[in-house]
Amino acid sequence: MDAFLQQALNGLTLGSIYGLVALGLTLVYGILHVPNFAHGALYMVGAYISYYVMVDLGLNYWIAMLGAGLFVAVLSVLCERLVFHPLRHAPPIHDKIAAIGILLFLEAVVQMHWGSDFRRMPTPYTGILEFGGLVLPAQRLLIIVGAFSIMGALHLYLKKTMTGSTIIAMAQNREGAFLVGIDANRVAMMTFAIAGFLAAVGASLFAPINLVYPAMGHLVIMKAFVIIILGGMGSIPGAIVGGLIIGFAEALGGYYVSSTYKDLIAFVLLVVILSIKPTGLFTKGVR
Amino acid sequence: MDRIANFFASPAMKVVLLAFALIFPLIAGSEYQIYVMALAFIWAIAVYGLNIITGFCGQLNLAHGGFFAIGAYVVAILTVDHGWAFWPAFVASGVFSAVFGFLVGIVSLRLKEHYFAIFTLCVGFIIYLLLDKWEALTHGSLGIINIAPPEGFGLIDFTRTIPFYYLVLFFLVLAIVLVSRISSSLVGRTFLAIRISDDLAQSLGINLMRNKVLAFVLSTVYAGLAGGLYAGVVRFIGPAEAEVVHTFDIITYLLVGGIGTLMGPLVGTMMITWLTQAVQSFEEYRMIVFGPMLVLLVIFMPKGVVGTFLTWRGRRLASKAPAKEGQTRVGDSATSSKEARDNA
Amino acid sequence: MLKINNLTKRFGGLAAVNDVSVEFAAGQINAIIGPNGAGKTTFFNLVAGAMPPTSGSIEFNGMDVTGMAPDRIARLGIARTFQTTKLFEQSTVLDNLIVGHRLRTQSRLWDVIINSKRLRDEEKKCRAKAAEVLDFVGLSHIGHRYIADTTQEERKRVAFALAMATDPELVLLDEPAGGINPEETENLAALIRKMVDHGITVCLIEHKMDMIMSLADKIMVLDHGEKIAEGTPEQIKTNPVVIEAYLGSEEDVEA
């Protein structure tokens, strides 16, 4: 039972990071209908910026996280302006290829600058908390609390602010939003900024218990795609719930079934789900 | 200008290209260059495969590099662990790619657009993970060495570069001839209709699933056989062959050359291969150039080199020779009066 | 020839088509009109098999085709055009049409590999068909032109030709005159009449009222997914329910 709870906690940690990354991906998909393959590269860049600010500049962990968040938010907006915006009327295959182009570019730049070595990012929070037999390193607690605080803040932003509710409106009905005179450009830029910010913060939270390297985004982005297909492309609660499902499935599956193949679990789940229901789990109506 | 353009588009150009390929080993500066060319031919075969499903049929398959790796591993495992000769193993790599492609196809092709791309990206990754982790079968991250080269039956020694070059060239020509036949045939036109739109294709009585699966299996067989040849020349492979970056390489070749065109895959592969060779030590950081190039291409030149050329020439011809085609066909004189009346 | 019984299609809780029964006779021009969102295109999608109905049935030439796959329905002889004319921009008009007759051919991959006689014959047949339908829609002179270089009206005609190439008995036209000028609209109406003269039954959705009124043999009016009237143009023009729901509020009645 203790082992189960321990794995559930690990699952929660994983799931909250996945949720953060998937949230950005699903927001972008909801607004622009672009599956942003470059999202994982943004996540990776976020980790490196965080590492740079903290290790090379010697600044505080939180400043590093904020710096990474802002930097990647700007980078993300640049991608929207320079690449996705010009391609908004192109055939559907083009924006995907362009996203792949961005991904390749960012990875190569990072690799050239930092090399392909695995790096470990230190954490200021090295303590270990114990709750009646359950071991929880402070960093993991930080991940869980941090991720859910950010999700909460995002929820407030989307519900309480004008731009936020416009994002929701556009995600639900693009044409309707245009009819009521929403500035689509601003919403698109804002969405990309949020997505980039979330990815970078997720990476900064996760990096101390993981490794930093140029290809670190691959697995995360693919799992994020699995999550948003699970949760319904464009659905915000779906991304969070989906993230948790995959997080738990991996932690428990990795423990009880096979740790060698734990990274396969998400994809096998996807294959099974899409084989049964080609439009994903929680989609409603037609498309 | 036009004369040059006409020449490039004429059948004579293909003869020139073939002649060049045939004498290339004689004019190449070094054996290394011949080797590079042979490898480029192998990749070109894989690119032709992707062109069938993505270029003709419009479905962005991101598992293509995975199928290439599967073909290579089938040859490697059968020759090294089971003592097969190369040729039967090579045939097996095609058969296995077809069977596996069929299974993946019937599941994935029910998905539309983005879902299909994401799904195949995941399939590619599953292939990579399996090759990396399933040590009992694939030797894991160590990879497989001493793969059997193609047997020359005492006549030819395919471990030498030049004979292997001609062998690969033979398969490349075969691959192009088949694609050329398909693309101009009713089967190819069926694929193109699906690329325009699923709905349109169905309204024309085209069975979507059957045709998409056919295109997909064709593409995986191309990838698998290319992988089999690759294993036969390189004779050492590892899980890295299945990394998604190879799929992205293949997409880059296809896009540069011209997606959906006949000669695009060849042109794109050749251009990028020799460009990469020209800049020493560029290989590792090629994506710094490839990445933005992909983006710029889809924004400013989505048809690639060949596609842009063909469209330019086609329009030029169309504007120069008005009202020529169509009139010669079925009963024109009989209907033209009726038409005049109807349009009046 | 086409008999619809209690056809219903729901999306979630919303009925896009609700309990519609109607019969279209062979050799006639049948129009479906109604305000935006009345369920006209959904009705077409159901008939063409693009989506299965929630309930009800569709009979074509006495055969139950309810829930049949769209490609099978096309082979049975129902062709359609779409509101937006999607064609292959990078090839010529004639090239675009050749695939239209594909459904009447048998060649498979093996025929391509060995370049069989069947394939060659069938390709000849498809080319001939393409030229024939191109001629039928009056576009023989631009067969070699690239689709990207054609006008809106020409595209509409190519779409007609493509539908004709399938050898249909019934053609569903979704807003054939959308986005073209009045003169072109008349030409297109003439073409529709010509199709009927050649024994094809036409069913069309259109907003241009004067075109409908002069062209249609029978009109069905949909509103909020329900059939509120059917009859000849004269009957529809004077039907108070129709005027209330639709004609009265629509400005292009006189246009």
Written overview of the protein:
The complex is a heterotrimer of chains A (287), B (344) and C (255). Chain A is built from eleven helices and two strands. By secondary structure, chain A is mainly α. Chain A has a single domain, classed as ABC transporter involved in vitamin B12 uptake, BtuC (Orthogonal Bundle). In chain A, a hairpin with a 2-residue loop joins β1 and β2. The longest helix of chain A has 31 residues. The mean pLDDT of chain A is 85. Chain B is an all-alpha fold. Chain B is 75% helix and 1% strand. Chain B is globular. By secondary structure, chain C is an alpha/beta fold. Chain C is built from ten helices and ten strands. In chain C, the strands form two sheets. In chain C, strands 6-7-8-3-9-10 form a six-stranded mixed β-sheet, with helices on both faces. In chain C, strands 2-1-4-5 form a four-stranded antiparallel β-sheet, with helices on one face. In chain C, α5 crosses α6. The longest helix of chain C is centred in the middle third of the chain and has 20 residues. In chain C, 49% of the residues are buried. The C terminus of chain C is likely disordered. Chains B and C meet through α8, α9, α10, α11 and α15 of B and α2, α3, α4, α5 and α7 of C.
CATH class of the largest domain in chain C: Alpha Beta
Low-confidence stretches of chain C: 251-255
Fraction of residues in β-strands of chain B: under 5%
Main sheet: strand order of chain C: 6-7-8-3-9-10
CATH topology grouping of the largest domain in chain C = Rossmann fold
So what's the oligomer here?
A: heterotrimer
Distance between the termini of chain C: 32 Å
- What is the average of the pLDDT values of chain C? 88
- Structural class of the secondary elements of chain C? alpha/beta
Query: Residue share in helices of chain C?
Result: 25-40%
Organism (chain C): Alloalcanivorax venustensis ISO4
Domain ABC transporter (chain C): 2-249
GO molecular function (chain C): ATP binding
Keywords (chain C): ATP-binding, Nucleotide-binding, Transport
